[in-house]
Design brief:
This protein has about 325 residues and is mainly alpha-helical. It has helices at about 20-30, 45-50, 60-70, 90-100, 105, 110-120, 125-130, 130-140, 155-170, 210-220, 240-250, 250-260, 270-295, 295-325; strands at about 5-10, 35-40, 80-85, 145-150, 180-185. Helix 10 packs antiparallel against helix 13. The radius of gyration is 22 Å and the shape is elongated.
Amino acid sequence: MENRKRILSGMRPTGALHLGNFHGALANWVDMQNQYDCFFFVADWHALTSDYENPGTIAGFVKEMMLDWLSVGLSPDKCTLFVQSHVKEHAELFLLLSMLTPVPWLERNPTYKDQIVQLENKDLSTFGFLGYPVLQAADIIIYKADRVPVGVDQVPHVEITREIARRFNYLYGDVFPEPESILTQTPKILGLDRRKMSKSYNNAIYLSDSPDAIQKKVARMITDPQRMRRSDPGNPDVCNVFTFHKIYSDQATVGSVDQMCRKAEIGCVECKQKMAAFLVDALAPVRAKRKEYETRPGLVDDIIQAGGDKARAVAQKTMADVRRAIGI
């Protein structure tokens, strides 16, 4: 992997992963592990920035997240999988970078402003929440990552990281490369109620859901809101179930459902049942692989341990360069 560009990305362990997480990130990660030297981490310290009052669930979600990752095809033989808090060097670099990062850089972060509004039920007036982009920068540049896969709305995060790396290099000499964003294209997939898929909305289909759970959830999905009766023609273009069909069903089914819906030759119940069957089949390999790991819990612990050891070795080498550059 010496000649491969290095990728770094992570997820906060705030709950079970769902189809939105898969299409938004994991599917791309699975492809990238064959092309890049990938480091993927469970960002448990980042989870504390908004859930610091109730940290009890974070530890349990760490292993569940690793199970989800392994079940969709991330392989410890192809990439480095680890837990953020197991590599203490992240905290040391975060501290040093916080000394040189101007506060206005953090206050202008659009995500910071959005989260303050969206999570108004939580007290986010903490240094940790304001400064999480600095920790994020430490996460990325401690592995001297070349690229960071993100959606368009996350590009400002990587730009702050680039600015922090640039400022460090200006003050102390060239230590860090400036990571570039890789814009990832993802299919638009919404929750059962046509809002963004999220556990907080109770509208998600999880990677770990059983076939029965999937079928029951699909049965309550919102379809074309203008189609009131079975005899009314529908419009697949505005139907969330049809969006799932285009992702999971075969082309023949997609074509027939499209035509039959527009002519009122198929009802929403039957349409949902058809899609649910394809979705259950599509997730069968994920369920099977997850079951393999669940029956061998020690193996997951070993993967986390080995990934942490590998990540730590890289981080320690970087921190030796950092201390040498600063002179302390």
